[in-house]
């Protein structure tokens, strides 16, 4: 039997991706679409300014959007909610849903709390163990399970095989981030060509702190943060979907580009689990003008990180480019994959 799920913030940019991924999902049945009071009572097709190039799934068009109220009767039979709420609202509302439901959240509000798992399935599934600690601490029966910031996911997936094989000493990353990452407010800036915004609020801090939690070890009932140095510089560029990152890595043991390529190629930890949203986490492109957002963002239905130009660096050991579909692998897809893995392996 399918597990009943709902989406919070269902009309927003990440919310739409959740709806697209969950509309005809083999494990989950999408029962509730929730948004603000403005949208409540309207059908999803009336409430939603659908921005995805793939059309709106038929099955959701006539569903009635409800107000995001944890006490609403529509939520009674729902076991999992996916949250695409803005962070301030997530802070207030997610704990109310976590009383009796699993909340898979894309919001940043709880990511860095000690007892909240911040998961990338291929990287740190052992951190799901924090759920028991969270339930003890907070006296609730559900849980909040978060996925990282979009740019952090791309970075950490590529760092994981390097860390496991050669150790990490220092990492520098410079991002070129798509406007869809900025939510509805980002959409108007799609009209601004011939420009780059050299600042994204809180993004560099998120990349620098979240990475160390995700790549940290779960020991003695807590996450011991990783201790390599990481420095990020984040920038918004006039691309619709697809974050590109230039990543520079100094390993502890020293590594050649060929060796990095080999460990990235081999990295495929969950391939035998048959998770519906799973795709090979890293796909390598040999052509020197790849990866590019428009050509490569839909690799693995938007779930694969596309890596290219792995080459030697004079200051670090190696440098490479990594591309991620930011609203799929970097947001809704990340959260859905967390839920698929948790349900399949731990529930
Ligand atoms: P709505 O469309 O009704 O305003 P984005 O991140 O793309 O800006 O999307 C934000 C999402 O959060 C939308 O689905 C939006 O719904 C929803 N939202 C905004 N304010 C509230 C609120 N006060 N209560 C519940 N949901 C909200």
Automatic annotation (TrEMBL):
Keywords assigned by UniProt, alphabetized: Amino-acid biosynthesis, Diaminopimelate biosynthesis, Lysine biosynthesis, Methionine biosynthesis, NADP, Oxidoreductase, Threonine biosynthesis
InterPro entries in UniProt: ASADH-related (IPR051823), Asp_semi-ald_DH_pep-lack (IPR005676), Asp_semialdehyde_DH (IPR012080), NAD(P)-bd_dom_sf (IPR036291), Semialdehyde_DH_NAD-bd (IPR000534), Semialdhyde_DH_dimer_dom (IPR012280)
Ligand binding (substrate): 177, 203, 236
Active site positions, chain numbering: 150, 243
Residues annotated to bind NADP(+): 11-14, 38-39, 180-181, 326-327
Domain Semialdehyde dehydrogenase NAD-binding residue range list: 4-131
Cytoplasm listed as a keyword: no
EC number: 1.2.1.11
Positions that bind phosphate: 111, 206
Protein name: Aspartate-semialdehyde dehydrogenase
Protein's organism: Methanocaldococcus villosus KIN24-T80
Upper lineage: Archaea, Methanobacteriati, Methanobacteriota, Methanomada group, Methanococci
